[in-house]
Amino acid sequence: MGPRLDLSRLPSVRTLRPTDQAFVCGSSPPGPSSADDARPRLVRVTSTYVHGHHSSVLDSHGARTAANSAAYLLPHLRAGMRLLDLGCGPGTITLDLAGTVGTDGRVVGVDSAEAALDAARRAAAERGDTTTVFQVGDAYALPFEDDSFDVAHAHQVMQHLANPVAALRELVRVVRPGGLVAFRDADYGSMSWHPGSDGLDRWLETYRRTARLAGGEPDAARHVLAWARAAGLTQIEPSTSTWSYATPDERAWWGGQWVERARHSAFATQAVDAGLATAADLEDFATAWAAWSQDPDAWFAMVHGEVVARVPER
Ligand SMILES: C[S@@+](CC[C@H](N)C(=O)[O-])C[C@H]1O[C@@H](n2cnc3c(N)ncnc32)[C@H](O)[C@@H]1O
């Protein structure tokens, strides 16, 4: 089952340039903080977030819930936990996780992009959540003291980072010994669909090449165990789970947002800028997605790799 569909969230068309910055300035957190955090930080972001934050991307991510994207973590959560959601995007998963740890818990969503954080704050306001904090920060230099959290979570973030192991080590640093680090990433190389189409084959290849050029690893699911081990995590529980799109509503939503993303997202801009696609190719991809979404036999599956693991004693 893929992310829950809300057809009112179907993307509107708006042309934006990618907002990802080469550098981000970390700010002091209202949550766990130290005097150290008051110092301005200049943090290098070595990869470019390939999807960007066009409304088609944020709307797509906004359909995610803890149930459809973090089910492997939920049995480990308890009321009162302090939880960090790294790369929280528009925050819908973060806010669900906040509901799980309750009002005695503390949840902070961190993202390098203000556009995503603005969407997350709007989502919090819509839900009447006044306690979850959304703040800017970088995966490689989090603005928190050591041992600030019981749990760190990251959904579809490591796949976009040039050095996911360094980012995981940073999560290990900010989680107390014995606490949890949990992350889940997609695997574009093992996506499967029906019916086959040249346009979708070329879309996938172009996406994977663009993501790699941006510094990421689009076939991340198969690496999650290796990354967790390299980061020094222990008691690692690896698993997989799948999003699928096969009902008429699911097809219309998944295919529809990719029509928009092929035309308007940062992926489209970066693919053209890098010479990996022409404007005509992008239109072919959009046409292929539109045809797929309207085919009553159409089917799509996307495997994720996920890990929940313990931070060792220091
Ligand atoms: C695919 S989105 C996932 C968003 C959210 N976790 C979800 O699943 O809905 C990846 C997010 O990671 C953020 N991101 C990318 N690089 C980052 C970095 N170095 N530090 C913090 N956030 C980063 C992006 O801005 C984006 O919002």
UniProtKB/TrEMBL annotation:
CDD domains: AdoMet_MTases (cd02440). Keywords: Methyltransferase, Transferase. Residues 79-193 form the Methyltransferase domain. Signal peptide: none annotated. GO terms for biological process: methylation. GO terms for molecular function: methyltransferase activity. This is Methyltransferase domain-containing protein.
